[in-house]
Amino acid sequence: MDETLSKAERTRKFIIERTASIFNTKGYAGTSLSDLTQATGLTKGSIYGNFENKEQVALAVFDYNYARIHYTTHELINQAGSFREKLLIYSSVYHDFMERSSPTGGCPILNTAIEADDTNRLLKNRAAEAILKWKENIVKLIQEGIFAGEFKPVMDSSQIAFSIIALIEGGVMIAKVTDSQKNLDDILKTVEMLINQLTVK
Question: A GO molecular-function term, please (predicted)?
């Protein structure tokens, strides 16, 4: 355990890490206080002494699960050579996460967006912020690729970025409900096709 953190910070970190898979699998509504106490071995008072309520735990858990995907993705993007390879990292990462079920329960953005909808404004906003940040990152890569002469000039890089995100997240959703990794593989081929159409031959 990181000794540079205060006792309260270590306890919060412990709660987040121990409940991350539960929220991502069961969702906010499906996760009970007893789930939290059982997973952590802590009392209700100890949990709510570190978080105001269950919603605050769920928000912290979303940030934790999202950060795991974000970190892995950007590490691989930084290692990739071409801008085409950098864009393809997004589909390969989500493909790998589905195969390894890491974070447990699948994509936290998709899970949170579907469940929160209009019933939980804070969680919905958290998922929206993640999607918009993802879009900005893709747009940046497209624009840098155009500047480098690797991609063809496009009229609307935001439209392409949202299309890539929709295909990936839609593919993950379809793979989950059909229990078919092949369905995701087929949809990710469309992502690759879209990226290849951007590339200057």
Answer: DNA binding
Residue ranges and CATH numbers for the domains of the chain are: 61-198 (1.10.357.10)
Assigned token pair, 94:
């989500």
Write the Ramachandran bin of 118: left for phi over 0, alpha for psi from -120 to 50, otherwise beta.
Answer: alpha
How many Å separate Cα 165 from the centre of its chain? Answer: 11
* 3-class DSSP state of 199: strand
The SS3 of residue 102 is coil
The Cβ-side half-sphere exposure at 24, using a 13 Å CA radius, reads: 25
Q: Is 5 left (phi over 0), alpha (psi -120 to 50) or beta?
A: beta
The number of C-alpha atoms within 13 Å of 72 and in the hemisphere containing its C-beta is 17
Alpha carbon distance 142, 174 (integer Å): 27
**What is the reported pTM?**
0.87
Q: What is the per-residue pLDDT across 47-61, written as a single tens digit (0 to 9) for each?
A: 999 998 999 999 999
Confidence of residue 2 (pLDDT cuts 50, 70, 90): low
